[in-house]
Amino acid sequence: MKKIVFGATLFVSIVCAQVAMAAGAITIAGDPCTVPLAKKLGEAFTKKTGKNVEIDGAACASGIYKASQGMVDIGVSTHEVSLAYLPAGTVNTVIARAPTVVVVHKSNPVTDLKLQQLKDILSGKIKNWKEVGGSDVEIQNVLLQPCTTTIFAKRSAPFGKDIKRLAPEKPGNPVEGTNKLVEGNEGAMGLQIYGYEGANVKVLTIDGLLPEAKTFPSKYDFYQDYNVVTRDGANSDIKAFVDFALSTEGQEIVISLKHIGVRK
To answer: Domain residues for 61?
Structure first.
């Protein structure tokens, strides 16, 4: 039964993609971590060129697979693990760096963590906010986004097996879920793409730093590449979209979402 359902879903995805392509729209599939920027770029590109851009959120790295199979024109991902398996016949272009930040409940008195303190929290050595100058509240880790957790695990230390984790009752958009869980729990600490944090959470500095042009990446190196994957021989409209993302106008949009531009 599962194979039948999967096959039907795949067939519908291919048909929908083919219909959109036939209509002349540029189709993009991306991780939840990539959709907000893709939408901003798509809206600006449409306004500039008149070419429609359709964007669909997908599971991490599935956009790259869909692009390689011709199901969509472009796959976008910040999950760096996927690039180790980049399908043959595809081309990757990095259009931005997506920093990850630590977010906490607005009432949390902590404003900064030393890098070693962060490592100790993620490893499970530190379990209460009072140990880093906060209130006597258990730390609850919100680790919903593979693209962010992968980076922190590599740059700091593997997550402890016994750390307190906070997860939603039902699976959903991990970017939105992170904001919601941190907003609603005094002891929560989440990992979030910078620029995607909700209005009701607080971003902590690490060693007094946030990611910006002056600190990134030499002093603040928690980030992923924003990867744009297309097939070899992509048509002129697809190439124009990628070029737009790298243009001065496109890079201004990148920076407006607190990502780091790649155009010098």
So the answer is: 2-96+226-261
